[in-house]
Amino acid sequence: MSSKFQKTFLCGMSTAALVVASLPIAAATSPTTTMPKTSPKTSTTPSASAIKLSAFREVVLPNGARLLLMEKRDVPLIAFTALMRGGAIADPANREGLASITAELLQKGAGARNTAQLAEAIDRVGGSISTSSAREAISINGEFMNRDAGLMIEILSDMLRRPTFPADEVEKVRDRSVETIAAAKDSDLRSLMGTYFNAFLFGSNLYGRPTGGSETSLATIRRDDVLSYYKSHFGGDRLILAVVGDFEAASLEAKLRTAFGDWAKSAAPAPAATPSQAVTGRKVLLVDKPDATQTYFWIGNLGVNRADRERASIDLANTVFGGRFTSLLNTELRVKSGLSYGASSVLSRGLQPGAAAIASYTKNETTGQAVDLALDVLKRYRTNGMNDEMLNSAKSYVLGQFPTSIETGDQIANRLADIALYGLEKNDVELYGEGVGKATMADIKKVINRVYADPANLSFLFIGNADAIRDMVKKYGPVTEMKITDKSFSPKM
Q: What is the pLDDT at residue 117?
């Protein structure tokens, strides 16, 4: 499994799932993200109207492939994001993790090159390519010098259209994926919380499947499964290709038409998850890890999808609730009470609504106290919302962070592919900035009560020493138990 998306695999979230990430401060001279000029005495936070992307060319080939091309001439680089729509939700039943394994294997031989030759061809010119699988797409990301555009297209075309899937590499990738899960169960429980929570919250819905598979499902995967997945779910009609950098758009379009225009459509229709139903009432999953000295917990319900038109207000609400260090959750659970080293809120957003959850951890003996405090913060937030000072601070934070996520060529390529995958407006970036700037207290109050569930309707996940915390967690609802040593992420019902 690719290291870039190992956390995504373990948490069961797509790369577009999370809210605003903390990133380096953007340069004011970026030609693609327009920022206001500032002096040393003025704030560096951009105005909402200043957040823009340059124009880009969008082309749909006769086979359905979508090309998004943006010229960015500040550095002699070309970055791309290629998405194959489908991803983990296309995994067959009992073969969860197949998309993840297929994605990694795209780097293990393609065209006339074997694994070593493919890596050497990329390294020789100073390029980079990585692959990953998320809930609704397999992706290939890369960056090359503009002089090597021909090689870039050749390698990308080989990886997408002519992968070799060597049998020995299938076994290596599969076995390493199983080992990664086992290691996480031993020493990195936080990375597994999203996978367990999604399985419990969504049940049999496709969003409940572990994107990276389970120890049980991965063990069954063979090369024939990979070949079958590839035949069914790779084709020109599934391709979204965003390219950003130092090139002439018309010339690059012609080369991409030659490389991908005659690619046949995939053999199977694109999979689509159906909307899930929010949990009514409460339910608790307790995963027993007898040697645990801390309890890791998630609390939540169904949230919103990626295309939600109020996502600017949602991000502001999430920033205040649990999206930064000074959030309400972290302030109460870490700073004031010392019950946890960290507490946050998680929003997973795909084509369908994902989870909206509180995430934290605490000592065994303070589990009930920490959960009660988290629920109290949730209840007060739903009742009182935020004040003007909080709203203004959140706007400054989001407007300060967002431009740095669309500064470099690879970031912009990711954003363009995201726009295409989720069916967003071409001016989504501008609309988002405007939405943040215009958001009112009334807007925020409305989304708080829509996104964060009533405390009476919640799913609870606890991973810890069951004997030490069982009596504390049973007050939150009917308890279902499983063991950390179980080879799946779902309890046997």
A: 98
pLDDT given for residue 38 in this prediction: 35
Q: Three-state secondary structure along 318-337?
A: HHHHHCCCCCHHHHHHHHHC
C-alpha distance from residue 12 to each of 8, 42, 97, 483 (Å): 6, 41, 11, 19
Could you tell me the domains of the chain?
A: 29-38+51-260 (3.30.830.10), 282-483 (3.30.830.10)
Taking the C-alpha atoms of residue 432 and residue 417, their distance in angstroms, rounded to an integer, is 16
Angle at 161 between CA 160 and CA 164, to 5 degrees: 90
Q: Do the beta carbons of residue 370 and residue 340 sit within 8 Å?
A: yes
How do beta strands 57-60 and 66-71 pair?
antiparallel
Q: Lowest-confidence range among 47-61, 67-81, 234-248, 331-345?
A: 47-61
Closest CA to 456 of 281, 279, 297: 281
pLDDT, one tens digit per residue, over 446-480 is: 999 999 999 999 999 999 999 999 999 999 999 99
Task: Name the pTM for this structure.
Answer: 0.89
